[in-house]
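Contributing new records

If you add data, match the layout below exactly. Sequence lines come first and carry their own label; structure lines follow with theirs. Keep one chain per record. Anything else will be rejected by the validation script.
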Amino acid sequence: MSAIASGELTTPGLGGGLRDIKQSGFLLKLLVRKELKVRYRGSVLGLLWSYVKPGVQFIVFYVALGVFLGLERSARNPEGLANYAVYLFSGIVLINFFTEALGNAARSIVNNGNLIKKIYLPRELFPVASVWVSAVHFFPQLVVLVIGCALAGWHPNLIQLLAAVAGFVIVALLATGLGLLFGAANVYFRDSENLVDMLLMIATWASPVMYAWSMVQEKLGAGWFAVYQANPITIGVELFHYAFWFPTTDGSAVMPPNLFSLWLFVGLGVALAILLLGQFTFRRLEGRFAQEL
């Protein structure tokens, strides 16, 4: 029911927040298609870049960390990580989704300024569409990961498959919340883009994508390790490791303690809290988007 039909008045430029996304599914699909067409306009490889970029990234990290620094288990290094290639790529796939989603969502309002100034539509559509575009790029990488895991003897159970879904949901909620927050702030303070770039650089190394969580616990101790562990990205990556890497090992690998009884709910709670904060901030600032742009 519209505001006019119900006799209610709303502030110009303000909508119902994320609730409007459900009612604007067609517009969301159009925005996702537009983003994909614009991104690959004039590109030779097109969507194949979804394979090339993480592939090159994986090779660089695997050679530098797995071979040179000895994180890959071998006859000479029995204390390394078994199937380090699977461990590394499962983390890269998820962290790439997060970095692309947040980076594009933070710029989505400014990049669509001309459209925002001409017509009204739920402004949350732009950050959410950026997350969806990143999900489109994520799933081809996921297919490659599944194939690699299958070649390494992957036999997951239902709980491990659900862990992968939970890890993706946590990271997607976090990216959406931060995308709303920084997308709105970027309209008023363009330095927000640089802040996001720094956060994304830190995010790659502040979660156990390329190293084992036990290394962090050994260096930080129990107290600071709990702070490290409360990071939703860390929890999402560990859930992905449990879903894709752990079933390829002999079962002797040790996962972080209380991953399902505690940290899964902590990660989900923190991600939801940031989503609510991002939505609140976005709604407070969106009224002057057109004027500021």
